[in-house]
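Weekly structure sync, notes
Attendees: PL, DS, HV (note-taker this week)

Item 1: DNA-binding response regulator
DS walked through the input record. Source organism listed as Flavobacterium hibernum. Sequence as pasted into the shared doc:
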Amino acid sequence: MKNKIRIHLADDHQVLIDGLTNLLQTVTNFEVVGSSQDGINIYDDVIANNANILVLDISMPKKDGIEVLKEFSQKKFPCNIIILSSYDDLKIIKEVMKLGAKGYLTKKCAGENIIKAIETVHLGQEYFCDTVREKIFNSFTHNNPKLNRNHYIENPILSAREIEIVTLISLEYSGKEISEQLFISTHTVETHRKNIMKKLQTKNTIGLVKYALKNNLINP
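Item 1 (cont.): predicted structure, written out as tokens:
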């Protein structure tokens, strides 16, 4: 039997903890192993219950989520951390990702994203809900005149993340720049690039640029 993903929930509202627990318990390979309503003992509790994933709110009494993240980064990360917050301020998003969080969800989108987020982060990948990802992407490209901001593409071949990567590559951003600004590793960027080229059956960046132009992702 596959080992269950062990989850610790940290939020100052018990009703939210209870709701998330009920939802996560519907997933066969999930197990909620603990919870916290303040930030004081989260690190020790995560160690004690051997959690794989910590779902962490930013607004916590006694020690807020950012301070908790700092504690984890100063010691070690015994688990991966997903931020679940009412805040969608870009400054906060960037701060917590730089501190080592692997995912960020707003509470408005938690119900439809939390299960996927946990599964994705547990596999070693980053996860952002659509509104957060869009904020990060737009902050990176807001001064680029070639970006077509009036076009949204529903693509049967590429995922939303792959569309972002194609667009950024076509705008001549380097793998390192994409990695730093989208809070994903350079390895993840390169993996996306290879997968995109395979899906589009192209062998080089020129093919990606042609695709972006043809699908109105960028302006000539």
